[in-house]
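Morning!

This is the sequence you dropped in the shared folder:
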Amino acid sequence: MATQRWPALWLLTDERMGAELAQAMERAAAAGAGILVRHHRSSDAERRALVEEVKQLGAPLALARDVALARRAGALFVHNPAGEPGDLPFSLPVHDEAEAQVAAERGAALVFVSPVYPTRSHPGAAVLGEEKALELARIAGCFAVALGGMDAMRGAALIQRGFDGWAGIDCWRQNLKAVPI
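The structure's back. Tokens below.
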């Protein structure tokens, strides 16, 4: 779906991971995954420290919302930027057709399409399912990453069907053993 080449695998950080976060980041880095630092409720100092941890691991880095920190940290892109990203590539979340269209119109470099499957981070939320998720990825017209209830097997299957990559939170808490892409 895309011409730009980004990592196909992503860990999205989350405060709920607690003490498991460091190990999840190590697993993601070892698998060649990018790490998207979200941690929206953390202080600026905590977010900067987390960014430094990712950089020390050598993993591709992206940062949610904070354009200035993303720029200073040398992030690949800023996710869902608060403000104009300027020349910094940006990604957007896509949950429906309207958001997919906005991503296409704004020229997003990547989209995170979710939730494809039921997920612990949003229990009881309506899911897109594979067909609708693929349709939203096509509408967005850029590098599309499947998110929500993902694991290595589901991610590999979705890549075979047309997604450019997959992302997760909980799945990185486990030893993925082999990550087929």
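Headline: The CA atoms of residues 119 and 149 lie 4 Å apart.

More detail when I'm at my desk.
O.
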